Predict the structure.
Amino acid sequence: MMKPTSAIGPLSNVSLARRAWNIRRKALLMGEVQGQGYIGQALGVADVLAASYFHALNYRPDDPEWEGRDRFLLSIGHYAIALYAVLMEAGILPEDELETYGMDDSRMPMSGMASYTPGMEITGGSLGHGLGIAVGMAMGLKRKNSSSFVYNLMSDGELGEGSTWEAAMAGAHHKLDNLICLIDFNNQQADGKSTEMLSSEPLEAKWEAFGWHVQRVDGNDMEAVVAALDAARAVAESKPRAIVFDTRMCKGVPFLETREITHFVRVEPDEWSKALAVLEEGTPA
Amino acid sequence: MTRASMSRKYERRATIAPENRIATSAMIASLAAEGYDTEPAPFGHALVELANERPEIVGLTADLAKYTDLHIFAEAMPDRFYQMGMAEQVMISAAAGLAREGFVPFATTYAVFASRRAYDFIAMAIAEENLPVKICCALPGLTTGYGPSHQATEDLAIFRGLPNMTIIDPCDAVDIRQSVRAMADHDGPVYSRLLRGKVPAVLTRYKPEYTFELGRAQVIREGKDVLVVSSGFMTMRALDAAEVLAQDGIDVAVLHSPTIKPLDTETILEQAGKGRLLVTAENHTIVGGLGEAVAAVLLRAGVTPTFCQIALPDEFLEAGALPTLHDLYGISVEKVAEQIRSWI
């Protein structure tokens, strides 16, 4: 496994696979506290988050609002459990707050909001908002002659929102080469498979037609994820970049992976510790 | 399939006498205000003047620069102007993103599109985070004869329910010019109704020392019989109607409240407590606008003057010529005077 290239502190020699494993473990611990949570999505997107925060992104854990940081927008507010896990792993949120997840007075509500959580750039949750805000932030960074990137993490379900495509056109029209859209394609939304709700395929052709550089990779293959993030940043043309990550819900916990997958994966009270135990078996170096 | 409940305006009998029929104005036409001096594009010129002082100001529009007077800014400062195309949702979201990066965006479109189409984006990307985006919208209320697609008769009701949102309904060129700076000075989101083109200068004629102050209602005309509390161009209508009524010996005071939210409750209560007939006048549906806001303030304080409302009906309005429609819906000078006379 390749090592992270961005220097973010004393733990930077930890492998990306271990980072992803840590993110999964933290998400399961948070789910255990609440007895619920969007754990299927968190387990599925953990590799993309690990590669983003421990390979691609430039930031300062002790100063989440540092002007020179790359912006990472969580458009999918209900993925907050996954972002909290990576923010803790990155040292932006203290780990001892883990057990407050979703509780009254917590800084980590069930749906992600900028005003509650350091490191949460925007209030997501009303789906189809993130990319448009990312367009504005990318325009703003260009006005400031900043070299920072704006990453927007969105879901396949959000591809059904018209606002996503308004933003896609705007990103290309304004030549936002500092904008990278990450699409977690787990083919699952509230009422069923995304491809059966409102199909967005052929997806690469769509983004390309909208004027974007596009890649599609296995979002649970760390080397492929890292290579795609590197390639996205290195595109020479003045156009925005999209990466479609095909991911597997519940990745890393086989007995959940094979369960009938739904938007809100059912986990019985005694299964959280079982899931953690299964995960422990596969602890990477 | 036909349904009895569906609106079929083509079946109704003609209501306007043939000799009184006039043509609908083009969208870009200015609001007619007889007898007043006008100023060209007060919003656009004021924004350029302010932007010269403040580098953080940027402008965005959704294909309506010319129709919101933002073209003045676009021509003067092309590198600070973003044409977002006919895409209100991303215009609003991008304005939020620019505000996050330290800029003060002025975003323009028509009031119908901001309030109806972009509402969720204004609510979540801007208002919930209390970002300083200034949303300035033309064609408020009944200022076009194009019909409900362009008549924003319920915009104030929609935005009044939105926490953190400051709402301005300016009367004239003076209000518009001066409110641009007040909006920029306010560290939060603002929705402002906009009159464009040749905009009459009204308030300083009646009160030469008048200046716009955010959150403040001001008495423009004193009077002992009636108190009209008004906003937007209905203050102009109230002032003109007051002149008409004066000839009948009816003395009408006009309290202009250009800030709809937060409402100047102190001034309203002070003026309402003087025993006069209280009339609210607004270019907005009778539901959820200035009138109901004032009524709630009065009731909560236990101040109960005789209360009457001049407002647009709770209906989708007709298409047609503005003077015809203003008469039809009771917001012309003549009809305002008539209604007040009938309530005395």
About this structure: Chain A is about 40% helix and 10% strand. The beta strands of chain A are 71-74, 150-155, 179-185, 213-218, 241-246. Residues 16-34 of chain A form the longest helix (19 residues).
